[in-house]
Amino acid sequence: MDSIDLRVVLSARGLRRDFGGFVAVNDVDLDVHHARIHALIGPNGAGKTTVFNLLTKFLEPTSGRIELLGHDITRMPPAAVARMGLARSFQISAIFPHLTVLDNVRVALQRPGGLSTQFWRPLSALDRLTPRADELLDAVGLTDVRNKLAVDLSYGRKRVLEIATTLALDPKVLLLDEPMAGMGHEDVGTISDLIRSVARGRAVLMVEHNLSVVADLSDWITVMQRGKVLATGDYPTVAADERVKVAYMGMEEG
Ligand SMILES: Nc1ncnc2c1ncn2[C@@H]1O[C@H](COP(=O)(O)OP(=O)(O)OP(=O)(O)O)[C@@H](O)[C@H]1O
């Protein structure tokens, strides 16, 4: 097997987070591989968002260890982890609605590490970033709306723009929070294609409720329930797991 493709870029061991007496994440092990799409799924309240918050260091783990690209990041601040190559794509709130699509990407390109936007720089100072911004817009299919205000884009394309601003950081690992939330049928196809293409050069870990998208996109799946890993494997393996079927019984598919 190809050692590069199978490289573990992000891993967690024995990850735990307590809130008062409540254990939201309990002894979670996770390995995220370069150039693979890994889905984190599970019923509401399973602990998926808390795992994301722990991996990005928005929350401190109660115990356990997290490694990014072979470095222990367990006690590192979020900005340092972002600079090392871990990016999280939020929902569309992360874009500037009254800047153009191009300027949103150019602003994103001038903030290495992503967390310290330098607002005082005039936009004209961003001119040198235009070629790279155009490349990114082309890669995500937004060239035709490059000069539109972000606020005027459809919901789906706002989400694409938001992902493009995250890709401006050229992350090694991209965490996607429910990329299909609120998407219409057409947009689901567009975003799926985009996720596939961005995963060629980096690891993608996504929380997603839409199980047909998970089945279609994921190379590997971790199923959580009540804070713990219930099952892990490829889609056919976890879909055939009796414990997973029971966990999902009565739960509506996205
Ligand atoms: N800051 C907090 N304080 C107390 N409890 C919390 C906190 N954050 C999360 N929890 C609890 O931890 C559990 C896991 O929540 P989490 O949001 O991680 O689940 P989830 O799998 O992302 O759920 P959903 O699919 O509904 O988003 C829930 O019971 C939640 O109420």
Description of the molecule:
By secondary structure, the protein is an alpha/beta fold. It has a domain at 1-80 and 203-254: Rossmann fold (3-Layer(aba) Sandwich). Helix content is 31%, strand content 25%. The chain has 9 helices and 10 strands. It has helices at residues 48-55, 78-83, 101-109, 130-140, 155-167, 185-198, 211-217, 235-239, 242-248, and strands spanning 8-19, 22-33, 37-41, 63-68, 71-72, 86-89, 173-177, 203-207, 220-225, 228-233. The strands form 2 sheets. The chain has a 6-stranded mixed beta sheet, sandwiched between helices. α3 (101-109) crosses α4 and α3 (101-109) runs parallel beside α5. The longest helix has 14 residues, at 185-198. The chain starts with 7 loop residues before the first strand and ends in a 6-residue tail after the last helix. The relative contact order is 0.18. Mean pLDDT is 88; it is low at 1-5 and 113-117. Bound molecules: adenosine-5'-triphosphate (ATP).
Q: What is the string of SSEs from the N terminus onward? A: EEEHEEHEHHHEHEHEEHH
Architecture (CATH level 2) name of the domain at 1-80 and 203-254: 3-Layer(aba) Sandwich
Q: Share of helix among residues? A: 25-40%
Overall radius of gyration: 18 Å
The profile of the biggest β sheet is: 6 strands, mixed
The tally of beta strands, per DSSP, is 10
**Spatial sequence of strands, sheet with the most strands:** 6-7-8-3-9-10
Shape summary:
globular
Distance between the termini: 35 Å
Question: Would you give the CATH topology of the domain at 1-80 and 203-254?
Answer: Rossmann fold
- What's the number of helices? 9
Which structural category do the helix and sheet elements fall into? Answer: alpha/beta
Mean pLDDT across all residues, rounded? Answer: 88
Poorly predicted regions: 1-5, 113-117
Ligand catalogue? adenosine-5'-triphosphate
The CATH H-level superfamily of the domain at 1-80 and 203-254 is P-loop containing nucleotide triphosphate hydrolases
- The first-level CATH class of the domain at 1-80 and 203-254 is given as Alpha Beta
The fraction of residues assigned to DSSP E strands is 15-25%
GO molecular function: ATP binding; ATP hydrolysis activity; branched-chain amino acid transmembrane transporter activity
Domain ABC transporter: 10-251
Protein name: ABC transporter ATP-binding protein
InterPro entries: AAA+_ATPase, ABC_transporter-like_ATP-bd, BCAA_Transport_ATP-bd_LivF, P-loop_NTPase
